Q: What sequence folds into this?
């Protein structure tokens, strides 16, 4: 039998921990497979998808900036991918490409790690890309108010519709006031700020005050970002994006193989790799 091949595609992509994480899961489950990291320009995405159709790859993960491009090239979309118009996992089904969104599973895992009480007050989401969309899907039934803050107001207004009546898009100039609200319970960074080459950047203005009761979830992983450093100094409960990475990766693994992987094995593989090299990414 030949070795099954899988890959993650994106640009940039060299920093990705997915090969280490998925490779550990394949070995632990005894599946003969290899998982590659493939840098792909936008013009070459269709060619890679043709490789999936022809059986060169059994499945793909997709990361920035190709998630929405890939969505429009699928033969079929699973429910979450259709609702969010974002695909991060491709499954080959008898030559047809089925697009899934496992970022939703990943964000659920990341949010659970914060152990927040139910029916919480205000959640602020920074960004309007694929990770922000997944966040809104999970936050919508759990928070009384959601504010989406982005540098692109028009895009943010469209994405905020996914959050329903509880969600509204606001400009960045309102962020300091939002963080000062007494019901501010959660801040989610779903932007690349804090990820190299923007590792020095913090998405929260210098004059903004992080209240100790505001939990902070920075979806960048692999380093202590400026946002996480500020949150820890303020006494906030906080977490990086590692749990989201592991959660979405495990969900993709199940879709490809119908096997439930050991999350701790996947998590440990990431932690070992992070100890070797400083890296960061958004899922």
A:
């Amino acid at each position: 039998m030949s070795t099954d091949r899988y890959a993650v595609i994106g640009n940039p992509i060299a920093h990705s921990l997915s090969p280490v994480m998925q490779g550990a899961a394949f070995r632990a489950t005894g599946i003969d497979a290899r998982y590659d990291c493939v840098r792909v320009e936008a013009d070459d995405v269709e060619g890679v998808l043709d490789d999936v159709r022809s059986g060169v790859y059994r499945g793909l993960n997709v990361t920035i900036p190709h998630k929405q491009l890939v969505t429009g090239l699928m033969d079929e979309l699973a429910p979450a991918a259709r609702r969010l118009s974002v695909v991060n996992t491709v499954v080959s089904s008898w030559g047809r490409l089925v697009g899934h969104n496992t970022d939703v599973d990943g964000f659920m895992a990341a949010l659970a790690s914060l152990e927040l009480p139910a029916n919480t007050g205000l959640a602020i989401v920074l960004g309007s890309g694929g990770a922000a969309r997944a966040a809104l899907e999970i936050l919508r039934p759990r928070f009384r108010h959601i504010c989406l803050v982005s540098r692109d107001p028009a895009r943010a207004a469209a994405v905020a519709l996914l959050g329903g009546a509880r969600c509204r898009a606001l400009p960045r100039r309102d962020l300091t006031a939002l963080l000062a609200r007494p019901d501010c319970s959660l801040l989610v960074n779903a932007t690349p700020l804090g990820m190299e080459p923007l590792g020095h950047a913090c998405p929260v203005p210098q004059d903004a005050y992080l209240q100790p009761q505001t939990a902070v979830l920075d979806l960048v992983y692999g380093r202590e970002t400026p946002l996480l450093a500020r949150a820890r100094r303020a006494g906030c409960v906080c977490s990086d994006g590692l749990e989201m990475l592991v959660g979405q990766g495990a969900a993709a693994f199940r879709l490809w193989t119908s096997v439930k992987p050991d999350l701790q094995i996947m998590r440990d593989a990431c932690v070992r790799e992070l100890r070797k090299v400083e890296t960061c990414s958004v899922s």
Summary: The chain has a mean pLDDT of 93. The domain at 116-236 is CATH 3.40.50.720 (Rossmann fold). The chain has two domains: 4-102+248-276, 116-236.
